[in-house]
């Protein structure tokens, strides 16, 4: 990413990341699809565990955001051995954090399920599921570390192909372990597998992740893909570990802030009844396509910015960002145009109930044009992460959701009046559920303006490596 035409290299980095994100979604869809054949309680149990699983994924993504920044900058600077050392310390840190989380989660699994409101059969099914998921946490963290290490070196395809095989393995194992095989024998040996319900779904995920992680660690030990894991680098390096934590912790908080705000907004929508809630659920699934694309381009941007800062070419790093942002916003404006032109058709891909379709048409016509602004913010966040300035990326997430979106939703959607001394009564707008849709628009546009201004200020241009500052063009 440090020379040649920018756009083709961004595309080459981005499309495997898009595919990888979609395959990660396939894991969840396959589990829910086959668990649905067991019963409503099993589906509720798996759905109830999703927010908790996302918290763990956010933690893994936070640690590995630091890995992408440091590895890419060392690779750009030609410091391959330093990049390898970062990989070793990342593996050490992910093992320590994931084992600690897995042990604590398994120890307190009963109070956790009671805290989130699981009861009766749902409690039983959720317990069977989460016990295995906690055991798989170290595998999840290690795979994220592997993917981040290769991504920092500029390789996004290898992890994608591993995800293809892993997701395929999960899809094959799900029906066998969830529903069972029925009476089966071969060569006189009984091969019958009893259906295990939600525990079977968790075991299928465990096996698929074990395969992907084992191959990933082998690839890192081989060292033929740009970075290498040296056993000697697993010796704790307090200074390097501290830098990984300092850079990675804001990215973890970023993920937590996003997941909590999603829960809050869903709660707001639910207050207006089942029809808007159903329309919102479908609309969010359509929006998730924009998240998948812009998130992947943001990850590719992080690699490009990191490598160019390591090579001490910050102007090219800025060009990478503006190119990625323009392409992403152009693509999302086009997608939004299609959705706005054919909103009913988009909704009927999921449901035929006319009341839900009508509400969904309103949702899409208000929110879809703002997808491009939200995508632009995600690209700039990727640039900040590549520079190692993860606090800026975190701040943009907080601004978008907790400063612009949630307060606007409260003012625009609900009806209330408060009396302010010396001012008098102040009333909300009370637009109903449409106020929630407009809150998304305000959050996207306002955070985009802040993101562009912040990036143009150039506070990210030095990166996080211990190098002398790069002189400006007019310096003597």
Can you describe this structure in just a few lines?
The protein contains 15 helices and four strands. It has helices at residues 6-35, 40-76, 80-107, 109-115, 120-152, 157-179, 198-222, 238-270, 274-310, 314-341, 343-348, 354-367, 371-386, 390-413, 433-456; strands at residues 185-186, 189-190, 417-420, 424-427.
Protein architecture, described:
- This protein is mainly α.
- The protein has 2 domains: 1-236, no CATH class; 248-467, no CATH class.
- The protein has 15 helices and 4 strands.
- A two-stranded antiparallel sheet has the order 1-2. The chain has a two-stranded antiparallel ribbon with strand order 3-4.
- A hairpin with a 3-residue loop joins strand 3 and strand 4.
- Helix 6 (157-179) runs antiparallel to helix 7 (198-222).
- Residues 472-476 have low confidence and may be disordered.
Shape, principal axes of CA atoms: globular
Mean pLDDT: 86
**Alpha-carbon distance between the two ends:** 28 Å
Strand content: under 5%
Main sheet properties: 2 strands, antiparallel
> How much helix is in the residues?
over 70%
Uncertain stretches = 472-476
> How many domain regions?
2
Secondary structure category: mainly alpha
Total beta-strand segments: 4
**Number of contiguous helices:** 15
Order of helices and strands: HHHHHHEEHHHHHHHHEEH
Report strand order across the widest sheet: 1-2
- Radius of gyration, in Å, reads 24 Å
């Amino acid at each position: 990413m440090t020379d040649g035409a920018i756009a083709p290299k961004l595309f080459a980095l981005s499309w495997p990341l898009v595919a990888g994100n979609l395959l990660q979604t396939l894991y969840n869809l396959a589990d829910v699809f086959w668990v649905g054949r067991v019963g409503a309680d099993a589906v509720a149990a798996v759905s109830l565990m999703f927010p908790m699983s996302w918290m763990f994924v956010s933690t893994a993504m936070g640690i590995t955001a630091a890995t992408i920044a440091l590895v890419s900058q060392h690779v750009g600077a030609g410091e391959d051995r330093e990049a390898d050392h970062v990989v070793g310390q990342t593996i050490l840190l992910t093992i320590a954090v994931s084992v600690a989380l897995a042990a604590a989660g398994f120890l307190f699994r009963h109070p956790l399920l009671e805290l989130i409101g699981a009861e009766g059969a749902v409690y039983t099914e959720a317990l069977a599921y989460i016990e295995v998921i906690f055991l798989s946490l170290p595998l999840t963290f290690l795979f994220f570390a592997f993917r981040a290490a290769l991504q920092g070196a500029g390789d996004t395809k290898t992890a994608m192909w591993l995800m293809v095989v892993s997701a395929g393995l999960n899809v094959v194992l799900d029906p066998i372990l969830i529903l069972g095989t029925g009476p089966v024998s071969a060569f006189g040996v009984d091969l019958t597998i009893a259906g295990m319900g939600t525990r079977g779904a968790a075991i299928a995920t465990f096996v698929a992740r074990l395969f992907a992680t084992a191959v990933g660690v082998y690839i890192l030990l081989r060292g033929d893909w740009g970075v290498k894991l040296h056993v000697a680098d697993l010796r704790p390096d307090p200074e390097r570990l501290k830098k990984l934590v300092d850079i990675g912790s804001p990215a973890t908080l970023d993920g937590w802030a996003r997941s909590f705000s999603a829960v809050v907004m869903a709660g707001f929508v639910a207050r207006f009844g089942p029809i808007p809630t159903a329309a919102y659920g479908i609309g969010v699934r359509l929006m998730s396509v924009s998240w998948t694309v812009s998130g992947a381009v943001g990850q590719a941007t992080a690699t490009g910015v990191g490598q160019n800062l390591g090579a001490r070419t910050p102007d090219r790093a800025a060009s990478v960002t503006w190119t990625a942002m323009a392409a992403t916003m152009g693509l999302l404006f086009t997608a939004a145009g299609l959705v706005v032109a054919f909103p009913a058709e988009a909704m009927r891909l999921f449901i035929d109930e006319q009341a839900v379709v009508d509400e969904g048409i309103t949702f899409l016509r208000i929110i879809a044009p703002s997808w491009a602004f939200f995508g632009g913010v995600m690209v700039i966040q990727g640039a900040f992460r590549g520079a190692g300035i993860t606090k800026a990326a975190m701040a943009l997430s907080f601004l978008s959701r907790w400063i612009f979106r949630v307060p606007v939703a409260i003012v625009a959607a609900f009806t209330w009046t408060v009396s302010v001394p010396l001012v008098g009564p102040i009333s909300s707008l009370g637009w109903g559920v449409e106020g929630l849709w407009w809150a998304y628009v305000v959050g996207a546009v306002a955070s985009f303006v802040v993101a562009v201004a912040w990036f143009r200020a150039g506070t990210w241009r030095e990166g996080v490596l211990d190098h002398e500052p790069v002189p400006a063009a007019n310096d003597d």
